[in-house]
Amino acid sequence: LCSNNNPYASFGATLARDEEQNLWSTPHDVTHTEADDDRVLYNMIVVRNQLAKDSEEWQKLNYDIYTLRQTRKEVRSRWKHILEDLGFQKEADSLLSVTKLSIISDSQNMSKARDILLKLSEETNIFPTSWELSERYLFVVDRLIALDAADEFFKMASAVYPKRPGGDRADEGPRAPQS
């Protein structure tokens, strides 16, 4: 039972290490795309791991890392919710999956995808106020353009996550579309 030949002996430690490095994609994803926001998170993790555990600085960085991860999960959840409402229940996860192998389907769509993403940022509450636009969602919008669903996505996002004048709240849940 104490043999060093057990391939599962370090399984928990490997999972924990992978989770620390898994900034966005699913665990063990070798095609993971590293974007600017991934580097920020990675740098925060590296700095935190060099600090004395449970020091004030460590706790602050740990909280910031947790908050950033939760924000990312919430944004992804919002996108998935809208995609599912548009009828992409089975395809939502694959539409949101961005890897090193992802490409823009048509270079002519690039400016339209950027415009729609910017419009989503400015006119809806799908992203938190402090969110810096991620290139990851540019790929998703490009896919929606290719599926001729980008305009419907924007309409649904506007209805479900409307921008509120005088202080939008990113922590509120989805709203039902208004008829």
Automatic annotation (TrEMBL):
Pfam families: MREG. This is MREG protein. The gene is Mreg. GO terms for biological process: melanocyte differentiation; melanosome transport. GO terms for cellular component: melanosome. It comes from the Eukaryota. PANTHER family: MELANOREGULIN.
